[in-house]
Design brief:
This protein is mainly beta. It folds into two domains: about 5-135; about 140-185, no CATH class. The chain has helices at about 70-75, 150-155, and strands at about 5-15, 20-25, 25-30, 35, 45-50, 60-65, 85-95, 105-120, 125-135. The strands form two sheets. It has a seven-stranded antiparallel sheet.
């Protein structure tokens, strides 16, 4: 009777360094890569929150908890340069006798790093990596982007195409909740 083992695989693609390849115990070879239970710099995976499915205007998200080898490693992994780095999770089936993959690992999440939160207690340190779906970037609000002469000229200096568009309904850019507040334009001076 063939027995199948399950293994969790995590790949974190950080700019400027080789990818962090982790599994939940031992090692798992997959293609040209080998997933290990510990990374010499970033430590081990403590846990990962089950990916949360998005409904309505909520996108999939989750948290990966790392147990870094040192405070310096936790600080390094929290580098602002790593925000937006790709994080992928898979569940793999392994043949117990050979340790080889059976088929292809099943993808569970394809995220980007949103923020990190370091938690420290006496003798314990963990780093929560909050991740969001790549589509989250589509929902970033860009306040102040309006279809007005002032904003248009700030992007395209010298272009005056909106100057004579007066008396129209105020329109705002897609993704913003409302028109900008506190701005008004008027021409109250007359020159002879």
């Amino acid at each position: 009777m063939e027995r199948v083992l399950l293994a969790g695989l995590v790949r974190i693609d950080l700019p400027g360094r080789p990818p962090v390849l982790l599994c939940d115990g031992g090692f798992v070879p997959w293609g040209a890569d080998t997933y290990l239970s510990a990374d010499p710099t970033f430590g081990t995976v403590g846990s990962f929150e089950a990916p949360e499915e998005g409904v309505g205007d909520v996108l999939p998200a989750g948290t990966l908890t790392m147990l870094p080898a040192s405070a310096a490693a936790a600080i390094d992994l929290s580098s602002p340069a790593y925000q937006g780095a790709r994080v992928r999770l898979w569940i793999a089936e392994l043949d117990e006798a050979t340790g080889q993959l059976i088929g292809q690992p099943d993808p569970q999440a394809d995220w980007i790093v949103d923020r990190t939160v370091l938690k420290a207690k006496r003798g314990e340190r963990s780093l929560d990596i909050d991740c969001v779906a790549l589509a989250q970037r589509l929902l970033i609000r860009v306040e102040g982007n309006t279809l007005s002469s002032a904003f248009h000229s700030s992007i395209f200096p010298g272009e005056r195409g909106h100057d004579n568009a007066t008396g129209l309904e105020v329109t705002f850019a897609w993704g913003a909740n409302a028109s900008p507040r506190g701005m008004s334009a008027s021409n109250t001076s007359m020159s002879a």
